[in-house]
Design brief:
globular; eight-stranded mixed sheet; alpha+beta; 4 domains; Immunoglobulin-like; 9 helices; nine-stranded mixed sheet; TIM Barrel
């Protein structure tokens, strides 16, 4: 009898516990509807929805990444009763809406209208994210929700190749909808020398058997350049092999707004890249300034390489399009023309502010040419739209701050004043937001000035910066196989000779 009584008690207790647990996990519907301001038109968007413990909530059958899901404009989630916080965004051209919603026994309904701040496409600017790791099937909704127009998707990356054992797409470029293009064959070589991105290829490069240092990434770049449409990008400016690549490979773009700059945080170190002086450039934003400094050294050495942007969504904690590049084309988007515009430098990069400038009526990337002895006066028009507080805008000339203009003055006058050149050089405009958690900024591509026979200003100190760098890099290369060691070092020997010549031939500083 005792055993029966104990057994009965356990059964009852178990039933009560199960009933309690069921009560604790009972869910109610939360319906979220997102529309354009002043209309009933549903708009795709990104939703960060968290419970009181800060845990992100998922929506069934919708793309989810780390702390957010993407929705077509209406979604119903089944959630336990309680309080939830939300942030709803649609790229930088709309206001973010945030708040709280309570889900009780009868559920809840949340209706949100998103206000557009600006329509960049109507101004002729079209956006792209050049570092995408999201699933191909999710791209139509993701791009619509962030208003990203161009997205080459990385489908091969070191030992990972989505095309292994599969037929290659006959048309790597896919038009998903109006003004929305993906390229299905982008790739990334990410090893000891850094990360380098490949676009415009019709098949993956054979990088899956590469080791940490061998073959050199430059060997794969040489293979890529056999394809007429190949586009090679320095994914970040501070990777160890950047000086060697600059010296020998026709690089098309440089990731200035890169994935170390995240929506709510910075990746504060240079990972396995060339470390910065953290006393001079402290965390959390020092890494962002370091990327800028190196890019300016590159421009100071006569390279005319436009800045680009990539979020690494799918690997790092960014939504698609957080770090993006806008290319000015005019009223119509054409995929090939977008890349031509990027190559020409008619761009600005951003992870927040929307910065548009013209110098005496010309877009970024323009080369102003004058005869010897001439003086060039340029009027800098500027328009900026931002959700983040900005104190100043800066004109950067030949790597240094030429002028600082208060934000309010820029908004009021639409101008950053004049800049005068009597010799060759370059300049760009940047705006850095007042955000202490991450490096949130915008930068135009450079404008170039050629006066007289000296077409380019070559800085000796900047060339020496890269010469010192390549020599430091050479000392780090250690391979057990002497033949492999010699093969890799040969690229750096040639780079060292290049930078030595540039130091000797420099015409400034």
């Amino acid at each position: 009898m005792l055993y029966l009584a104990v057994g009965a008690f356990l059964c009852i207790a178990t039933a009560l516990l199960c009933k309690h647990a069921a009560a604790q996990t009972t869910t109610q519907p939360l319906e979220i509807t997102v529309t354009d301001e002043g209309s009933t038109h549903l708009v795709p968007c990104r939703i960060h929805l968290k419970n009181t413990d800060g845990e992100p909530q998922r929506a069934e059958n919708l793309p989810f990444w780390l702390d957010h899901f993407t929705c077509p404009g209406r979604v119903t989630l089944n959630l336990p009763s309680g309080e939830y916080t939300y942030e709803i965004e649609r790229g930088p051209e709309f206001e973010m809406v945030s708040g709280r919603v309570s889900v009780d026994e009868s559920g809840a309904s949340l209706r949100v209208q998103l206000r557009r701040l600006i329509n960049m496409a109507k101004e002729g600017w079209w956006s792209g994210d050049l570092h995408v790791h999201r699933p191909l099937e999710d791209l139509p909704l993701l791009m619509a929700a962030e208003e990203v127009n161009v997205a080459p998707v990385i489908t091969w990356w070191n030992k990972r190749n989505l095309w292994e054992g599969k037929a290659r797409p006959e048309q790597p470029v896919q038009e998903l909808s109006a003004n929305q293009y993906v390229h299905l064959m982008a790739g990334e070589d990410e090893r000891e020398g850094g990360a380098f991105l490949f676009f415009g290829l019709s098949e993956p490069l054979p990088i899956s058997d590469a080791t940490k240092e061998y073959p050199s990434p430059l060997a794969f770049m040489e293979q890529a350049l056999k394809h007429p449409e190949a586009w090679i990008e320095l994914e970040k400016p501070f990777w160890w092999d950047v000086p060697a690549v600059l010296a020998q490979i026709p690089v098309r773009s440089i990731g200035l707004a890169n994935n170390h700059m995240c929506r709510r945080q910075m990746y504060e170190s240079e990972a396995w890249g060339k470390p910065r002086d953290t006393d001079r450039l402290p965390s959390p934003r020092g890494n962002g300034y370091w990327s800028q400094e190196i890019y300016y050294h590159i421009l100071n050495c006569g390279f005319r390489i436009p800045p680009s942007a990539g979020s690494a969504s799918g690997v790092l904690p960014n939504p698609l399009g957080y770090d993006r590049v806008y290319v000015h084309l005019g009223k119509k988007l054409d995929y090939d023309d977008w890349w031509k515009g990027l190559r020409a430098g008619r761009v600005f990069v951003t992870n927040g502010p929307l910065l548009r400038t013209r110098a005496s009526g010309k877009w970024p990337g323009h080369v102003f040419r004058r005869k010897h002895g001439a003086k060039l006066d340029l009027d800098i028009e500027c328009a900026i739209t931002t959700r983040d507080p900005i104190r100043n805008l800066e004109i950067i000339r030949d790597g240094r701050i030429e002028r600082t203009v208060p934000y309010d003055e820029c908004v009021r006058t639409g101008s950053l004043g004049k800049i005068t050149f009597t010799e060759s050089g370059w300049f760009l405009v940047r705006a850095i937001a007042e955000n202490e958690k991450t490096f949130r900024f915008a930068s135009t591509g450079p404008y170039c000035v050629e006066i007289g026979e000296r077409k380019k200003r070559i800085s000796r100190s900047s060339a020496q910066f890269f010469l010192d760098w390549v020599q430091e890099r050479k000392a780090r290369i250690k391979l057990d196989d002497p033949a492999q060691q010699a093969e890799v070092l040969a690229y750096h020997d040639r780079a060292e000779a290049f930078w030595q010549r540039l130091v000797a031939d420099a015409n400034a500083e």
